[in-house]
Design goal:
Length: 122
């Protein structure tokens, strides 16, 4: 195989496909990920959480204060990062729904606080 054949194969593999509207709607009906945005696709890849009641295990109850925590199969080997992973998943859920998340400082004083509030709120 020469370099041109290799390039042609890569081009054919990456080439966009054309569908009629009816074919696209049929694909969307069968596969929800066909029209999902990036955040929704990441959530699909992460999967559904397994809820763990830490009150039932003495070792985990000391670490998590008898809370019910969500453990995701994709992050099964990430020990001690349950809260951080839950924040990431929460951010992705908000992004998948199209909600905006604003980062505001907890303490704003003076003219700049008024300017920032007017600028953020439009």
């Amino acid at each position: 195989m020469n370099i041109f054949d290799h390039y042609r194969q890569r081009y054919e593999a990456a080439k966009d496909e054309e569908f009629t509207l009816q074919e696209f709607l049929t694909i969307c009906r069968q596969d929800r990920s066909a029209y999902a945005n990036a955040a929704e696709r990441l959530l699909m890849a992460i999967g559904e959480p397994v809820m763990v009641d830490t009150a039932l295990e003495p070792r985990l109850s000391r670490l998590f204060s008898n809370r019910v925590i969500a453990r995701y199969p994709a992050f099964e080997e990430f020990y001690g990062m349950e809260d951080a992973i839950e924040q990431i998943v929460s951010y992705l859920k908000h992004a998948a729904r199209g909600w905006k998340r604003r980062n505001r400082s907890s303490i704003c004083w003076g003219r700049w606080a008024v300017v920032n509030r007017r600028w953020l709120n439009g």
